[in-house]
Amino acid sequence: MKTKVFQMASGKATQLSWVRMPYQNLFVTLHYRNRSKASNTSYRAFEHLCFLEEICQFEKIDLIERCKTGDFLTKKELENIKKHSALKVESFREMASRHKPPNVVVIKRKKVETARAKVVINPEGDISAHTV
Questions:
Q1: Rounded to whole angstroms, how far apart are CA atoms 74 and 38?
Q2: Environment class of residue 28 by beta-carbon count within 10 Å: exposed (0-12), middle (13-18) or buried (19+)?
Q3: How many domains does the chain have?
Q4: Which structural domain range is residue 60 located in?
């Protein structure tokens, strides 16, 4: 997740993350920017929210959807988020990249055999066996 700093017409710096995070943008706007917090404070809040989003993606937790439906996180999910948030961002990203499944599709041998075309030669056909 990237955060971009914009200079307002009034001269005040403000941050917005990419469009993927509308709720996080709203949160930072309401709780930091509208309360006249420093732009670096807003920036740090975005960084923390982006890190939380990375952890939730790694754990396959859709936090926004869970909040919309009112599903609480399980104790195990909270413990996993707590465990990962104790790591430095670089350490977490290295660990996540090691545990990332490869983009290789495993093809089972039986499926390969059924997918191959079988040539049936009709000995009484119009084409000679030599040409076939």
A1: 35
A2: buried
A3: 1
A4: 3-104
> Mean pLDDT for each consecutive 10-residue tract of the chain (132 residues)?
61 58 85 82 87 92 90 93 90 88 68 57 53 42
Residue labelled with tokens 């509308």 = 22
Residue 117 CB partners (closer than 8 Å, separation 6+): none
pLDDT at residue 131, as a whole number: 47
Counting every residue, how long is the chain?
A: 132
| 76-86 residues labelled b (16+ CB within 10 A) or e (exposed) | ebeebbeebee
The reply to whether 51 falls in a domain is yes
* Cα distances (Å, whole numbers) of residue 9 to 6, 12, 47, 92: 10, 7, 24, 38
The tokens of 85 are what?
């948030």
Please report which residue ranges of the chain form alpha helices under DSSP H.
Answer: 22-28, 39-58, 63-69, 75-85, 89-98, 109-115
Q: What is the DSSP letter of 29?
A: I
DSSP bridge partners of 4: 16
Asked whether residue 112 is domain-assigned, the answer is no
The pTM (predicted TM-score) of the whole model is 0.61
